Amino acid sequence: MTDQREAASPPVLDVRNLETVFRVRDGQVHAVNGVSFSVREGELLGVVGESGSGKSVTMMSLMGLLPSPPAMVTGGEVLFEGRDVLKMTKQEMRALRGGDIGFVFQDPMTSLNPVFTVGFQIMEPLRVHLGLSKARARERAAELLALVGIPSPGARLDDYPHQFSGGMRQRVMIAIALACDPKVLIADEPTTALDVTIQAQILDLVQKLRTELGMAVIWITHDLGVVAGIADRVMVMYGGQVAEQAPVAELFARPQHPYTRALMQTLPDLGGARKERLLTIAGQPPILRAPPSSCPFAPRCAHVHAKCREANPPVLDRGARHEVACWWTPPQEGRDAA
Amino acid sequence: MPLDAAKTETLVSVRGLSMHFPIYAGIFRRQVGVIKAVDDVSFDIGRGETLGVVGESGCGKSTTGRAVIRLYKPTAGSIFIDGKDISKTEGDALRRLRPSMQMIFQDPQACLNPRMTVGSIIAEPLDEHRRDMSRAERQEKVRALLDQVGMNPDFANRYPHEFSGGQRQRIGIARALALDPKFIVCDEPIAALDVSIQAQVVNLLEDLQDRLGLTYLFISHDLSMVRHIADRVAVMYLGKLVELASRDALYESPRHPYTKALLSAVPTVEKRSVERIILQGDVPSPANPPSGCVFRTRCPMAEARCAAEVPAFRKLADGRGVACHFAA
Predict the structure, then answer these.
(1) Which residue, of A165, A205, A248, A319, has the fewest CB within 10 Å?
(2) pLDDT tens across A308-329, in order?
């Protein structure tokens, strides 16, 4: 399915060599170091990594959502339908955000304004971006609430955020992001704060919406289980770089990067044989004061050798659209032996 | 088997524990209702055993953990630790019991005082309960504790902000171990940590259990992690215990419809043959729980009987306990 789509459509969003630097009191932190990826219409890209791996900063940078200073996008291109987002004026950018590109943040408790009704907050982008009349915007807001599965949507428009539960608030956030029929939806850990049964409802909803509306979705999470269930392709990030990128089945069948492999082994399973002991990754993710000159994972890597400390591995295609940034090649094997 | 201690003798025995919080309203602050955070819960924990408690937010799992070690005064029920009922103990007598039961908290950021050094944080329980120890002995103990949780003993003079989340959680564990407790309540100890760090902390908890013979009540919403660490698992919903079974029995063949739904909702890397049950709606308010079975409003197999009759928590043939009319 992915291959047909690839032939049919160019990427909606194409990010090339994005670099972001934070200027801090005692120097610089290189949070994003040459990240490249793209998403196509209707495709769901899962982005995985630990805190500090640069996954959120990447998405915030490409939307110009980071305060500058301290943040500065120092390099790269972000092409949305062929136009470079980073070269846009503030007005053009504003039209894009909340219009063609929707954003859902992690915390549904703090992303909604507590002093405005939910209806007002959904109608806001409709009136600003689409210039709808108040009555028409209200109608559309009710449709959106119904779309994300909130019962009696018309009546609930006049409720305030505190009258909704966590799962309902996250649905409201999704409704706001969907308000202007975005071509790309960026969701930053949208279900992390929710319970598993509510998470299952939200995952179901997003699957339905992207098939029905043909949206491209970028789903940031640290939960490999979620990614395995919903993504078409997965990008694993480490130290502000792409460690590995592959179609979902390929990644879980043949993880190539030592970080991805270690990440999979640290997880306890819900079924199958119980692991006697969980594998750990010793050490901490790096804070990069300078652009990495060696592999950022080298200090924690089980397969490290001299070359890893000398040069940062480039992202190379290993076939089957499987891109890996690592000098080491795992022996040919299935997932069981991994 | 499950309701009675699994392995050896029972260390903790909870019978009919209820924890109700009053709701006050109006200008006279009159009591208008009650939130039944925990309602009639009974379980045992054997010495050296880990009992996992799982459930969604607001199901009363943390309240249960806190009530068991008497951070709350329970509304009803009894709590036996080592054969002694501590549910009504007060004042000095309760204070003397504190060293034997400790707690590890969820947020390692919030539970460590930022103005105290790591050494004084870990020594605080010793200052309070071990007046018999000299200053030098206490310092030695702190260094030994840091070493025990896998940290450099020289870190005693540093402050919490100098450490990462996983290291802070280790400091919290060292503090909990300071008084050589028998029983530790772990309230979501890994929820705030990254996946690669979670495994480190869980391995540490397991090592400490082996070495010191600790008994854990392990509260978590992460069902895969509970399967890894627990010997038996209790599932809670809206203040009620709905299922209690040995680990393998619970994960291989859940009997309560809520347990089934909960397990099927967990996203996993491995493809599973289990049909996904997506529950509709949210957990009802514990201030106004449904009549009869509390789960009936979201239960796919609810019938008229469920609204009328509260299902008894009964034992099945394989020894597990389930609170459902239809479970067999």
Answers:
(1) A319
(2) 888 888 888 888 789 999 998 8
Looking at the DSSP assignment, which residues form a beta bridge with residue A39?
A13
Distance of CA B2 to the CA centre of its chain: 17
Within 8 A of B266 by CB-CB distance, chain A residues are 196, 225, 270
Cβ distance of A266 and B198 shorter than 8 Å: yes
Q: Do A196 and B262 touch (CB under 8 A)?
A: yes
Q: In angstroms, rounded to a whole number, what is the distance separating the alpha carbons of residues A199 and B134? A: 52
As a residue count, chain A comes to: 338
Contact predicate B262/B237, CB 8 Å: no
The Cα of B297 is separated from the nearest Cα of chain A by a number of Å equal to: 14
User: In terms of DSSP bridges, do strands B314-315 and A216-221 run parallel, antiparallel, or are they unpaired?
Assistant: unpaired
Residue A325 CA to residue A318 CA, distance in Å, equals: 10
**Three-class secondary structure of residue A67 per DSSP:** coil
For chain B, the farthest-separated pair of C-alpha atoms sits apart, in whole angstroms, at 68
SS3 A290: coil
Contacts 24+ apart (CB under 8 A), B92-99: B94/B70, B97/B70, B98/B129, B98/B179, B99/B125, B99/B129, B99/B179, B99/B180, B99/B181
Rounded to 10 degrees, the C-alpha dihedral A262/A267/A271/A272 comes to: 30
Q: Which amino acid does the sequence have at A96? A: L
- What's the burial of B207, exposed, middle or buried (CB within 10 Å: 0-12/13-18/19+)? middle
Of A9 and B214, the one with more pLDDT: B214
The answer, yes or no, to whether residue B281 has pLDDT greater than 60, is yes
Structure tokens at B263: 């397990």
pLDDT tens per residue across span A225-269? 889 888 999 999 998 899 999 999 999 988 999 999 988 888 887
Interchain contact, A266 vs B194, CB within 8 Å: no
**Looking at the partner chain, which of A50, A263, A272 has a beta carbon nearest the beta carbon of B270?**
A272
Q: Answer yes or no: do A51 and B194 touch at CB < 8 A.
A: yes
Q: Note if the pTM is more than 0.90.
A: no
- The pLDDT tens digits for A36-52 are 999 998 899 999 988 88
User: What is the nearest CA distance from A202 to chain B, expressed in angstroms?
Assistant: 10
| Least confident residue range of A154-163, A194-203, B316-325 | A194-203
The four Cα atoms B86, B91, B92, B96 give a dihedral, to 10 degrees, of 40
User: Torsion over CA of A16, A22, A23 and A26, rounded to 10 degrees?
Assistant: -130
Residue numbers in B near A189 (CB within 8 A)? none
Dump pLDDT digits (tens) for B75-115: 999 999 998 899 999 899 999 999 999 999 888 888 899 99
Q: Indicate yes or no: CB of B269 within 8 angstroms of CB of A264.
A: yes
